[in-house]
Amino acid sequence: MQGRSKNNFACLCAMVLPIFLPQAGLCGHSYKVLYTFQGGSDGYFPLAPLIRDKSGNFYGATEFGGGDGCENLGCGTIFKLAPDGTKSILHAFTGGSDGALPVAGLVMDRAGHLFGTALGGGEGTCAGYLGCGTVFELDPGGTFTILYSFTGGSDGAQPGTLIAGPQGSLTGATAYGGNLGCYTGYGCGVIYQLKHSKQTVVHTFSGADGEFPGGFFASGGKLYGGAGSGGDNGYGVIYRLAGNGKETVLHSFDGTDGWGPGRPVVDEAGNFYGTTSEGGDGCEQWDEGCGTLFQLAPDGTLTVLHDFDGQGEGGVPSDLVRDAKGNLYGTTNDGGDMNCDPVDGCGEIFEFTVDGSFKQLHVFAGTDGEAPVARLLIGSDGHLYGTTSGGGNASCQYGGVGGCGVIFEIKE
Q1: What torsion do the CA atoms of 87, 263, 115, 4 make, to the nearest 10 degrees?
Q2: Longest dimension (CA), the chain
Q3: Of 5, 133, 325, 329, which has the fewest Cβ atoms less than 10 A away?
Q4: How far apart are CA 202 and CA 243, in angstroms?
Q5: What is the rounded distance in angstroms from the CA atom of residue 112 to the CA atom of residue 6?
Q6: CB-count burial class (<10 Å; 0-12, 13-18, 19+) for 380
């Protein structure tokens, strides 16, 4: 349900040197492609948000590529992009015990260890996903270790977002599993904690309190996040989870105010800001709406700040990031330049300012990227960094979509 991303399949093309494409942006911003994925062993379809270390190296993941497994699509990669544009593969997934299809973001500890999840693979059995998923660690020396393999039962299945907690603990969410009486036997997902390879389920979703939890963040000993569906109306919820596992639904969406909320951000006054991938006031392409940008006040009042139109103002927005001035930034998977893709458009990068103005910062044209999905990264330099799931090298084709994705930078 979460988003109408373009259909993506295998991409097989030759390795070439990184492509740099400086390009003028909108509103006084400049856009530059830092790296163009080539498919095959190089990977393609990057969905995970980027992270960056103190030396300026980027780390991320591609859902596919890296090898010949997973029905020849490749099972995904973990990569590093150095400041000089040199890209290296840190791990190529096999679809076996190590996992398959990494789609969530990585986290890094102070010692430089990377932690993440793979949607499938592992030791469990989950039909259609080559296993139920894994949690892994990749140390600075390149040693890859499985910390946990999901079974698809009460412990969850298909893990996503991870955050690092105190004393080496990791907290994460699974989209499925848990209460197998929920969602026709697949389960509605769990929040779990992992410490010293011991997994403890903190909360099991029942449907009424949300289904399919996605991104979240921690603040004051509590978790705040979005569940893509469920709640009072079936359109998803924003929730708070206390340390003892007690959940409070802060808002249940009804479709008119959005459908499919992602990870919110919060300001100093306690207001939450976020997006929904669908719902809202409707748009020409999709009767259910092209998504919303909302504010949720501390008293529970939700205000739709922007309805995406699926055209020039985009559709299917990503999760937001917020700068020190309170401006919000995101991408849309759809909309933008409809000449690029007459049905969906190729997406865009946008800013929602503190005074309530919606601004396009960059409209994708295909050659410079297409269909961004991942949350943006605000660097210490104030620049925005991100990935697109397609576009770039037009000779790299999969599922009818040209290009295997890019890594980009945008700045004033």
Answers
A1: -50
A2: 55
A3: 325
A4: 8
A5: 34
A6: exposed
Neighbours of 181 (CB within 10 A): 11
Full-model pTM:
0.91
What's the one-letter identity of residue 10?
A
Q: Which helix (H) or strand (E) holds 223?
A: strand 222-229
Q: Which amino acid is residue 33, in one-letter code?
A: V
Structure tokens, 61: 């993941």
Give the residue carrying structure tokens 């359109």: 235
Half-sphere exposure of 382 toward its Cβ, with a 13 Å CA cutoff?
6
Distance CA 152, CA 128 (A): 12
The residue written with tokens 């070439």 in the block is 16
Residues 6+ apart with CB under 8 A from 71: none
Q: Write out the DSSP string of 76-101.
A: -EEEEE-TTS-EEEEEE--SSTT-B-
In angstroms, how far is CA 320 from the centroid of its own chain? 11
Torsion region of 342: left, alpha or beta (phi above 0 gives left; psi -120 to 50 gives alpha): alpha
Task: Tell whether the model's pLDDT for residue 9 goes beyond 50.
Answer: no
Give the residue from 138, 14, 161 showing the smallest Cα distance to 80: 138
The region, left, alpha or beta by phi > 0 then psi within -120 to 50, assigned to residue 393 is beta
Tokens for 184?
């026709």
Q: What is the DSSP string of 268-316?
A: TTS-EEEEEEEBSS--SS-TT-B-EEEEE-TTS-EEEEEE--SSTT-EE
CB 388 within 8 A of CB 371: yes
Tens-place pLDDT, residues 195-213: 988 999 999 999 999 999 9
How many angstroms separate the Cα of 195 from the Cα of each of 107, 200, 241, 392?
A: 15, 8, 19, 40
pLDDT on residue 397: 67
Residues 135/170, Cβ–Cβ less than 8 Å: yes
Q: For all residues of the chain together, what is the average pLDDT?
A: 90
Structure tokens at 109: 């500890």
Give the CA distances from residue 18 to residues 82, 88, 353, 369, in Å, rounded to whole numbers and listed in that order.
12, 12, 33, 14
Strands of the sheet with 114-118, listed across from one edge? 107-108, 114-118, 134-138, 144-149
